[in-house]
Amino acid sequence: MRRIFVLLGMALCLASAEASAQEISSRAANLQVGGRLHSQYSASSVGAAHNDFFFRRVRLTLDMGVTDFFTARIQPDFAGGKTEVQDAYVRLNFSKAFRLSMGQFKRAFDPFSLASSTDLSIIERDGRVEGVDGCAGVGGTCAYGRLTEKLGFAGRDAGIRFELSGGSVSFLGTVTNGTGINVSDDNDAKSYSGRVTLDVGSDVKVSGQYAAHDYVDDAEQNAYAGAWSADVQFGGWRDGLLFQAAVVGGDNWKSLDAGGNEALFTAFQGVASYYVPLGHPRYAGIEPLLRVSYADPDGDAADDGAVIITPGLMLYVQNKTKLGFNVDVFSPQTG
Asked: Which among 9, 58, 221, 300 is least surrounded, fewest beta carbons within 10 Å?
């Protein structure tokens, strides 16, 4: 009999950078100070898991503007009893069509990773369920976000970022170490990501992207794993219907197939939500949501995929300040 695992996540976001930013001026620069607190409770039906109250994010955001040409951001996170830098970069704004950044930021891959957690209606991008650790190569639950981030195609990294835009077309590219946040490179190779977005009008955007992630293989040699992805978005944040869907495939370099080569993974994720303004003095709006995610970590292995279904509800106090509830139902093909 197939086992169904359920994670109940209740998240309280008390402040967001956009809602609470304060500006400080000096002779050298203008400094905007903001941040957010994300307090969460999670409960899992897996027997060995612990129900837990914890701080998911405790972030301070410092945006500095020296001139229109030179700006910077620093964003430390204090959750989990430790300090860890998330964003930290300087940006050169050559024009509205071209910007160049150097530092630590998100790689140009995966629309769900690139979107801010203050915007997303899903509480956990990777659909994590405490007590589950069965996805080939990456552990945890088998989901779209788990594979893209744990395989190093998405998430934050240190390097250079290029932003180009013109008319209805935009490009985001990154060249990074490939080792993740606050970690020095472990070889002399670099990882590459590129994302092209086309605005087709009527609040519809389609994107295509490719990433080449460098790593050190078992023979202590530099190697590359590739991944491709395509996605579509209809609608906007907190504006009626919002639908996002993406498909991704590539090399699962953390898992080898029967021939000793990188396994091939595929994943799909769709998220739909509908924001309804309430006009209440205490509550700005309500947003029901549904996520469906499928992931297969090894295309040659039988019945190793899984599905995650996430119904949820967000209650907005103001702007991005909200109370949220998700139920992540994880259904593996076997186990």
From this structure: 221
Nearest to 147 by CA among 58, 254, 67: 254
C-alpha dihedral over 54, 58, 5, 138, to 10 degrees? Answer: -120
Evaluate whether 241 touches 272 at the Cβ level (below 8 Å).
yes
Looking at residue 27, what is its pLDDT? Answer: 66
pLDDT in tens, 116-152: 999 999 999 999 998 898 899 999 999 999 999 999 9
- Contact status, residue 171 vs residue 195, Cβ threshold 8 Å: yes
Within 13 Å and on the Cβ side, how many CA atoms surround 274? 2
Q: Which residues touch 266 (CB under 8 Å, ≥6 apart)?
A: 247, 248, 249, 295, 296, 299
The DSSP string of 31-70 is: EEEEEEEEEEEEEESSTT---EEEEEEEEEEEEEESSSSE
Alpha-carbon distance of 108 to 192, in angstroms, equals 9
pLDDT for 244 beyond 90: yes
**Residue burial 123-134, b: 16+ Cβ < 10 Å; e: rest:** bbbbbbbbebee
Given a contact cutoff of 8 angstroms between Cβ atoms, the answer to whether 5 and 307 are in contact is no
Q: Is residue 66 within 8 Å of 28, Cβ to Cβ?
A: yes
Locate tokens 């209606």: which residue?
A: 121
